Amino acid sequence: MSKALEGVRILDFTHVQSGPTCTQLLAWFGADVIKVERAGAGDITREQLRDIPDVDSLYFTMLNHNKRSVTIDTKNPEGKQVLETLIQKCDVLVENFAPGALDRMGFTWERIQELNPRMIVASVKGFGPGPYEDCKVYENVAQCAGGAASTTGFDDGPPVVTGAQIGDSGTGLHLALGIVTALYQRTQTGRGQKVLAAMQDGVLNLCRVKLRDQQRLERTGTMKEYPQYPNGEFGEAVPRAGNASGGGQPGWILKCKGWETDPNAYIYFITQAPVWAKICNVIGKEEWATDPNYATPAARLPHLKDIFAEIERWTMTKTKFEAMQILNKYDIPCGPILSMKEIAEEPSLRKTGTIVEVDHPTRGKYLTVGNPIKLSDSPTEVKRSPLLGEHTDEVMAELGYSPAQISALRTAGAI
Ligand SMILES: CC(C)(COP(=O)(O)OP(=O)(O)OC[C@H]1O[C@@H](n2cnc3c(N)ncnc32)[C@H](O)[C@@H]1OP(=O)(O)O)[C@@H](O)C(=O)NCCC(=O)NCCS
């Protein structure tokens, strides 16, 4: 069966997490992703957070599936020539070097355009043009600068970063969309273009609702669904809302049976308005369905803390899974707090290919997250990440280099 991006060749100049997330997605959709790495070292994540000595880390393997690896020294003049050939043969160059690194290598936008006017040059940077454009950026910096940290955590505590890699993987996703969009436009224009996804912008895009709230706060001085509301303690900026639901249906994380010893014995419970009467029945507070202090969403807002405390008295008598089963019967929206252990062992996620077991020649079997985006005509087959330089000879031969030329370039330290 053909793949959606079959025939698209990607020069993958990415490293660490944000760029590799993007090119891995493109590879899963069928693009030929050629990862260019520095000989001897490669992507720094190959050796970061290792769990097995001298074996590519899970950090690397889980972000670089379905790619080919070639090692080229792009600061060596002959290596540079090889890279020029690659630029001529590829459709997209993806990079997430520190600002200016590609230019310093000699590959400015103008030079790339000379070599291949159809080339799409896609970059992740920490910031877009502005005061911070020259800064190097990692995940948590982006979470802080993009508005996520100031709006995450509890009101009486410091800003908090989230475990979801919204700065790195989130921006990689944004970049992937930019790339396929540019590829589509190229079918009309015949020209390449630059695609930029700045991590601050990507995080802010995911925090869109908080900028919505900033403006609501400025206009009205309050936000009734926030836990601060009953006491009216709002400052000038959107506060941290703890576990409050971001939408119009109040929610909170509640303890379940076993919470004293299991840090994940919790459930997210949403008091969705249409099922309020059912919630009252389930928790044994039937009178709340008609009590004017509780019967309508507006009446409930000042009492949310007490309401959730009462619901928690009920959830604490059930495991999170028992509670889920009961609540789902009544269409009450809720979700268990799943640990990574539980997710890794979840059979339905294995069945859909969202969790995949992969075999690797030096590491053996390991689990990874497969493609979260499912296309009916372009199914994803997750293949192991490449060893450093595993495909150098293969790719060089495809570029037209003879075995003798390859050997000479290797002797010169170019590849
Ligand atoms: C992530 C980041 C902070 C890492 O910084 P770093 O480890 O110092 O790496 P840099 O990107 O600065 O370095 C790349 C250097 O390696 C060189 N290099 C990379 N591949 C090479 C190759 N194959 N051959 C020779 N040199 C190579 C580059 O030319 C550059 O050298 P220079 O600084 O002399 O110009 C930085 O790349 C960055 O800010 N990237 C953009 C934002 C981003 O993606 N951040 C999230 C990462 S998950």
Q: Alpha-carbon distance between the termini?
A: 34 Å
**Portion in beta strands:** 5-15%
Residue stretches low in confidence (pLDDT < 50, at least 5 long) are none
Q: What is the gyration radius calculated from CA atoms?
A: 26 Å
Helix tally? 17
What would the principal axes of the Cα set say about the shape?
elongated
Q: List the ligand species.
A: coenzyme A
Structural class: alpha/beta
Question: What is the helical fraction, as a range of percent?
Answer: 25-40%
In N-to-C order, the SSE pattern is: EHEHEHEHHEHHEHHEEHHHHEHHEEHH
What is the β-strand count? 11
Strand count, sense and barrel status of the largest sheet are: 6 strands, parallel
Strand arrangement, largest sheet? 3-2-1-4-5-6
- Please tell me the overall pLDDT: 96
Function: Involved in the catabolism of oxalate and in the adapatation to low pH via the induction of the oxalate-dependent acid tolerance response (ATR). Catalyzes the transfer of the CoA moiety from formyl-CoA to oxalate.
Protein name: Formyl-CoA:oxalate CoA-transferase
Pathway: Metabolic intermediate degradation; oxalate degradation; CO(2) and formate from oxalate: step 1/2
InterPro entries: CoA-transferase_III_domain, CoA-Trfase_fam_III, CoA-Trfase_III_dom3_sf, CoA-Trfase_III_dom_1_sf, Formyl_CoA_transfer
